Amino acid sequence: MEVNVTTLEGLKRRISGRIEAEQVTQRTEKALRQVAKSAQIRGFRPGKAPKAMLERRFGSQIKADVAAELLEEYFPLALEQSKVEPISPPEVERAEIEDDGSMAFDIVVEVAPKLNLGEYKGLTAKRPKFEISDEEVEQRVAQVREQHATIEPLEEERPLADGDWAQIDFKGMLDGEPFEGGTAENYRLQVGAKRMIEDLEQGLIGMVKDEQREIPVKFPDNYGNAELAGKNPVFEVKLREIMQRIVPEADDELAKDAGEESFAALCDKLRDEIEQTKAKQADNAAQESLLDELLTQNPLEAPARLVERRLDAMQEQLKRNLVRQGLPEDQAAGLVDSTRESGRERAQREVKVGFILSDVAKAEKIEISDEEIEAKYAEIAQSANNSVEQVAAMFQKQGQVEALRSQLADEKTIELLMSHATIVDVEPEQPQTDPQQEENESENNQAEADED
Length: 452
Description:
Blueprint: E1 2-7, E2 12-19, H1 21-38, H2 51-82, E3 91-97, E4 103-110, E5 124-128, H3 134-147, E6 150-153, E7 165-174, E8 177-190, H4 198-204, E9 212-216, E10 234-246, H5 252-257, H6 263-297, H7 304-324, H8 329-338, H9 344-363, H10 370-384, H11 388-397, H12 401-419, E11 422-426, H13 441-451
Parallel strand pairs: 5-11
Antiparallel strand pairs: 1-2, 2-4, 3-4, 6-10, 7-8, 7-10, 9-10
Helix pairs in contact: 1-2, 3-6, 7-8, 7-9, 9-12, 10-11, 10-13
């Protein structure tokens, strides 16, 4: 088999090959005999139709099938002969049997960038300084107060007002008949929160305890239930209780409810949590600055297809996060699509860093054992409240075991680089605020385990 390699733009290579006519003819004749055994042609018993007639009727399809079969068989041989090591799925440009009986094919693949590993020890990592203000602690205390707020019956007697909580019984009637999903007892809602049809919420205002009222409403034309969209039902409502939300004071009682002995102990705990989170953020920023310098010391080109695949993975994770936060899937997909180009630079950076870390790992003989994989399974299982067996089965089913091994190798390699780096404390580029939730690599693993 003749094989030639052409260098295209970037890291793309075209592998062109030609399979001898004799090989193609043998395979074509074999395929023709197989077709003849079952071909239904008027006037001939199976297997008795003339060869020329079979070629006229089935020749094109047979050629296409033979070309696909030969390509699958000979492409690995072409890679071996050309010494090309692709890192992305092949793109078939041409695979056809020509007039002389031989078969020609052109396939484009991408190869890994060539990297002459430069400096990777003794780099500088810039770690942002951080402080914890009293205001940040106060904000966290306010959050704890909100988390321990209670809904309690209103002591004074007065009509229901906007912003109050109400406990109601209701029955929706359409054309004099109750409709499915329109009835509930002891239902609790906050008036004005727009969690129900606005006409219904507004119709509750002014009611007093134990009052019954009929409230006409209009469902929007785009209402989720098509049978109710645009309809004008009437809700029979009884107000059982007017309630209010009580936010506890910032005192020792609040601290005890939160599991601490005193309010001072609670504040100390919150301050420690803020410090831990900010320290983690500073460590992450130091790692990012180290990787920036690593890229500067080891410039390389990112394979375009790997960048697209990484970008796809980033967008899929973003979409899943948005859906988990309550955004409808179609809206999440639209929002993610609109941010694709803005994420390209990050995807390119991650692909480049991956190649460099891989080379560093080889140079330092860094490997991940099966025991380390099992330990990671256990960590994910604990955070996701799953069994180790479930987590292991999930990774195996999704074919992600080697991806996890690669991730752990990258983490171990970064730890090595950080241990040899010079850590420099620098002023933060932007003022830091206390984050609502720490985001890290384990969050993605936990989310995937939760969905299994």
